[in-house]
Amino acid sequence: MLPVFYRDVLGLTPQFPAEDGPYAKLTPATGTAGVALQQRSAMASVFDELGHPVSGHRGLIVLRVDDLDAQVEQVQARGGTLAHGPAPMGERMRVAHLRDPEGNLVELQEWLALRG
Known about the structure:
Layout: H1 2-8, E1 13-14, E2 23-27, E3 35-38, H2 40-49, E4 60-64, H3 68-77, E5 82-89, E6 93-99, E7 105-111
Parallel strand pairs: 4-7
Antiparallel strand pairs: 1-2, 2-3, 5-6, 6-7
């Protein structure tokens, strides 16, 4: 059900139709970057093999947007609840945060000025 949140709340497009599988890949309406999601239980075995157990860890997923206020409005209209923001983060960007159904933090970020 995690891909459904990213599709229905964040507005990303699944690259293939399976919603119940252990893996999903989604893309935004614009740009070439995407989000790949792996079931925590499947990733746990990989991290255990690498000697990095995942117990208690959560992910941070960052999505860069052109218009933070418009994106936040769309997310809220789709049922998303913000945990923070929109608010400035330094002088170069504004951010808003929400959590996905597994507790991963999702950051929506709008760059106001690129690093020079």
